[in-house]
Amino acid sequence: MSNEAATVQTADAATEEETGPRRGLGASLPAADARAKTEGTFPYAADLWAEGLLWAAVLRSPHPHARIKSIDTTHAREMPGVRAVVTHEDVPGTPVLGRGTADRPVFASEVVRHHGEPLAAVAADHPDTARMAAAAVIVEYEVLDPVTDPEQAFEAEPLHPDGNLVRHIPLRHGDADAVGEVVVEGLYRIGRQDPAPIGAEAGLAVPRPDGGVELYLASTDPHGDRDTAAAAFGLQQDQVKIVVTGVPGATADREDQSFQLPLGLLALKTGCPVKLAATREESFLGHTHRHPTLLRYRHHADAEGKLVKVEAQILLDAGAYAGTSSDALAAAVAFACGPYVVPNAFIEGWAVRTNNPPSGHVRGEGAMQVCAAYEAQMDKLAKKLGLDPAEVRLRNVMATGDVLPTGQTVTCPAPVAELLEAVRDFPLPPLPKDTPEDEWLLPGGPEGAGEPAAVRRGVGYGLGMVHMLGAEGADEVSTATVRVQNGVATVLCAAVETGQGFSTLARQIVQETLGIDEVHVVPVDTDQPPAGAGCRGRHTWVSGGAVERAAKMVRTQLLQPLAHKFGMSTELLQITDGKITSYDGVLSTTVTEAMDGKELWATAQCRPHPTEPLDDTGQGDAFVGMAFCAIRAVVDVDIELGSVRVVELAVAQDVGRVLNPAQLAARIEAGVTQGLGAALTENLRTPRGLIRHPDLTGYALPTALDAPDIRIVKLVEERDVVAPFGAKAVSAAPVVASPAAIASAVRAATGRPVNRLPIRPQAAVVTSN
Amino acid sequence: MTLPTTLDEAVAALTAMPAAVPVAGGTDLMAAVNSGQLRPAALVGLGKISEIRGWQYLDGHALLGAGLTHARMGRPDFAALIPALAAAARAAGPPHIRNAGTLGGNIASAAPTGDALPVLAALEATLIVAGPGGARREVPVSHLLAGMDVLRPGELIGYVRVPLLHAPQVFLKATGRTGPGRAVASVALVLDPARRGVRCAVGAIAPMPLRPLEAEQWVAQLIDWDNNRAIVPEALSAFGEYVAAACIPDAARGEDGTVPPLPPAVLHLRRTVAALARRALGRALS
């Protein structure tokens, strides 16, 4: 009997250990909205409804470059059911928008600079009427030759009053005359990845009696968008409110402002609620894309493979408007050499305007493009020296205390060697001949044309690094409020839950600090204080830090009277399961009792240490923190057809501290898969500046069959002392490293150079002649 | 929207409303409607016509209803009958597309990437077209796809007559990815042991499937039909090259008498067709 009880107890203890804690930091707490999202009851922006709403449609330019001779809205206005038509003449305030650099007109007035640029918007009582009315706006164009090759942009006539050069960074670090015994060169091209959010853009604008307007949107930067909208509408900031609705996917800046502003203008003009739900085509035409990039590299190394010097030229295609291209260029130039020690670096980076669709922030911007190039260079170096590709990387990897080419010392944990060794030493997946009983998924897929005899397997590596938070002096700040009443905690913070898991993390932080199980996160709107845009791991760090501080302040308020009563400091009291106990367990009371019907509030801010802009030679402490990732890719290539199947991606990542294991694994898997898309299939083609196939058949996102086995081999938990909880952002680093790793593996399988992403089948074919 | 229950009712509905558009699975049509490219005045739904949703046997042929879905054609019982069409149906997209899309729709849409089309071309299938007043006429599938004989007002594809060859058939499709995708090139190859013939069609590289007739005849005589359909291995590669060169010919000779090289993308497509044709014949004869 007693034996049995003991056994049961042990079993229970084992289960507890395996499943980990159920609440607080380190727990795999599920997202509060997971069930609603799975069952399809979660309300997204496209599900919104208001009594008497009108539907909006936007007229977009069919030309990449044209002079506008006239815009005639007479016919559109006269159509039955049409309530308002707005053009550039109807923008009462500042008629430009754009994150980073505001250089993009709300509506084109004199010139259109890219295919899909908005010219007019219509509100009507039916979406079809609105679309037909938008098509009935007569625009007389004088079509101009588009500049679509970024290399031509330097010489071309200015496409924009600000000129064609958005930014030039000539980074100079070390001795220009240094030469290595071995030199490898390469020219690399990275295509245009689209964020392709599963839920297309949608929103609802509701006019207010005070002359203001409320915008219901899936914005990822509500305060930034509010400021732009208020300026464009000619209103005070407090007259415009953005209420953030469910975000249906955001791997980039969400809810392009070119949808929001027409919507608000139409609501203000008609006095009615106005809704817009973009079609997939409009979504592709309206939002920004990843920067297509051209890279030219020369690596110098000594005979042992130690890097001596890196020279590079990096050209980012910003598209028609600058937007956030300056930030992307800074990341590209700063991380041009990757997580390797390079004593001498000379990197020229440019971002230029063209008549291609505008580029913007997409996870891993700048860093992903250079990673594909510098890792290709490392493969070339290994081949030239007859070294193993992992070995040549290990001889050069950086560690804490090493200096970036920008002159910034890496002060955070940089366990790059440990990450690379972990993926290198992880057992390789079995070959099909070793597991004959398993069905082998060939390149080309089930029912594909794959032929086992033509399949070659390759193994490759990618080492990526990204910066966290805004760079170059951006003011990073977030404010959070924590309220406790009746044993329930509530978090108010304008950090948008984009799917990155912030609201789950906020609940865990409060559980950990206050020992309260039931924590709610309030929906976000711009009446709350700003928390900044949801990108570059900002919210885990800045907003998570603010939530923790606020929760700690509430804790002190709660425990201070008790501590005083018991004659001990608050640190000697602990809260678990709604009970407050002293360190020795002698004194105890419940949270409800201690609260005594009171309501406790605290608001706190988190602002990381400041950074500085890169100077004229690309030098400066521009980044708050960095995160690293190593990926080993195993691919099968059908060398006759050039079809590639990624068999396995083994990931080791520098995460600082695991706050939610399940969520962390999901973020890494999502990032790796986005990188897989960039490596193999995702490329929005724009011949002569015109977007081709703006649909999800023409633009091939990875499906479950394309996604490989993703093995998270190691998570290095070396806490970053300056980050709240010591945790690093996790989503972007795998996006950066996986395309490089896949390209490296295809190189190993085929012996071909593979210098272009996505990898086209003809680049993976092995021909005898 | 009307929902007739027989083929003749559907034809009558189309005749009565010439502006109406017939819809079966809607996988192509509804995408065009939703994107605003097509605004049909009325729809005639074909989903309730049970007579075209199955198949029957007729003098050594199978009479396939135009309303057969890809999912149904992909099942093992159908695969035992017409293996290449079953393989094409299984490759024709993700499950929800295969559940809705039909054989007749694939033919009527006549998209260059339609997966069933090269198989029907290789099988030399014949369409049974239903017309007003109970009229039936036969149209070879290649005539319809080439635009030599188009559907007249009020007409519907009712059935597809396909010979039962009782021999290996192969359909291979290159998509450039592992997940479902549109064909970059596809090859359907069927053996006809009774006539000692090989028939092959290449899909997706031209507006309609291409038949390399000379290559078919050439390779048919190299097969030892009485001895396990044996063939020398070199003939497989030669057949692949022959098919590819027939479908994607060299550029015209320049004025100086030299043949300019094909652009890299076209050259890759030719290599892809050659590999598919070689693999298809190899699998059919193995």
From TrEMBL, chain A:
Region annotation Disordered: where it falls in the sequence:
1-31
Residue ranges, compositional bias (Polar residues): 1-12
Pfam families from the entry? Answer: Ald_Xan_dh_C, MoCoBD_1, MoCoBD_2
What SUPFAM superfamilies would the database entry show?
A: CO dehydrogenase molybdoprotein N-domain-like, Molybdenum cofactor-binding domain
**The organism's place on the tree of life at top rank:** Bacteria
Instruction: Give the residue spans that cross the bilayer.
Output: none
Which residue intervals define the domain Aldehyde oxidase/xanthine dehydrogenase a/b hammerhead in the entry?
39-145
The record, for PANTHER family, names: XANTHINE DEHYDROGENASE (PTHR11908), XANTHINE DEHYDROGENASE SUBUNIT D-RELATED (PTHR11908:SF157)
What is the designated name of this protein?
Answer: Xanthine dehydrogenase family protein molybdopterin-binding subunit
Q: Which organism is it from?
A: Streptomyces cellulosae
